[in-house]
Amino acid sequence: MTLASIRQAPKAVLHDHLDGGLRPATVLELAEDCGYDQLPATDAEALAHWFREAADSGSLERYLETFAHTVAVMQTPEGLRRVARECALDLAADGVVYAEVRFAPEQHLERDLTLDEVVEHTLAGFREGERLAAEAGTPIRVTCLLTAMRHAARSREIAELTVRFRDRGVGGFDIAGAEAGYPPSRHLDAFEYMRANCAQFTIHAGEAFGLPSIHEALAFCGCDRLGHGVRITDDIFDSDTAEPTLGLVANYVRDKRIPLELCPSSNVQTGAVPALDKHPFDLLARLRFRVTVNTDNRLMSDTDMSREMLKLVETFGYGWSDLERFTINAMKSAFIPFPDRLRIIDEVIKPGYAVLIG
């Protein structure tokens, strides 16, 4: 199993940040177009290296500082459309057939765009990318998730924005940003609004902060998925034995089939886990949690879905059947209608892996 062969496998990604996946050359060109002069490097290779090095700090807060530069060049209609278009194309070229890409509209208002305009231009870019990818023979479906920043106070407004665009390409809602000091319950009004409107949402929880964050996201907020959720292992005991013991929260997550949006490379970079071979992905997979493989931020982690899968293969010895299971886990958990999920699984993912498995 090689990187080239894994690129041929159909993939589904649920946790990919739009402002964390720009092409370095695009950052430079958009910065020049909009007059942004704060970039730390002036050529694409050096800029890519800077993003990776800055993100490797082992601190979530330091990791998040890198986004100041990408968000700064995504303040115009042209910038938003281009970044969304290239995002769809880059994912499709990597073999991704279904993607959920999230971003925070409230961070893109510096050039006097409205929240609705920010979403409209971004969705237009995704549709352009889908069209070009289909023409290139690498079809992809992209669903947009709208994120509210947990340190701000606009989550209800962003939840309403999500519902307003639910039939135009927006599939769900999320909160993101530094966890410590900003618990999910701080945004309870937004989550109650989403539930009242039968709308789906995920919550960044259990990444930098432990089990209380996960418990709040589930018990108080009622999330459909957990963004990262890697710290669910705080509620798994005797994990080095043949029969680990699960606490109440871990049992609930497994029994209810709450999807875990695990991001291996990113989790190491932010210090959520010390090293890839210490990542609980394999433990959770063996215990039959609904684990999914995700990129988080392709620019900051210098990664894509194929490389994330290859790292898991090399670290834990997975085969094609394992990668197929993780992919189907993701597709089952997607924020699109059930018939659409089933069609992609039956008509795209399973046939694609059947060829690879032989």
What's the alpha carbon Rg, rounded to whole Å?
A: 19 Å
Overall geometric form: globular
| Major sheet: arrangement of strands | 1-2-3-4
CATH superfamily: Metal-dependent hydrolases
Indicate the percent of residues in helices: 40-55%
Sheet with the most strands?
Answer: 4 strands, parallel
- Helix count? 17
Do you know the CATH topology?
TIM Barrel
Question: Secondary-structure blueprint of this entry?
Answer:
Layout: H1 3-7, E1 11-17, H2 24-34, H3 44-55, H4 60-65, H5 67-72, H6 77-93, E2 96-103, H7 115-135, E3 141-149, H8 155-164, E4 170-176, H9 188-196, E5 202-205, H10 211-220, E6 225-228, E7 236-237, E8 245-246, H11 248-255, E9 260-262, H12 264-269, H13 281-286, E10 291-293, H14 298-301, H15 305-316, H16 320-332, H17 338-357
Parallel strand pairs: 1-2, 2-3, 3-4, 5-6, 6-9, 9-10
Antiparallel strand pairs: 7-8
Describe this structure as you would to a colleague.
The protein is an alpha/beta fold and 358 residues long. The protein has a single domain (3-357), classed as Alpha-Beta Barrel (TIM Barrel), CATH 3.20.20.140. It is built from 17 helices and ten strands. The strands form three sheets. It has a four-stranded parallel β-sheet, sandwiched between helices. It is globular.
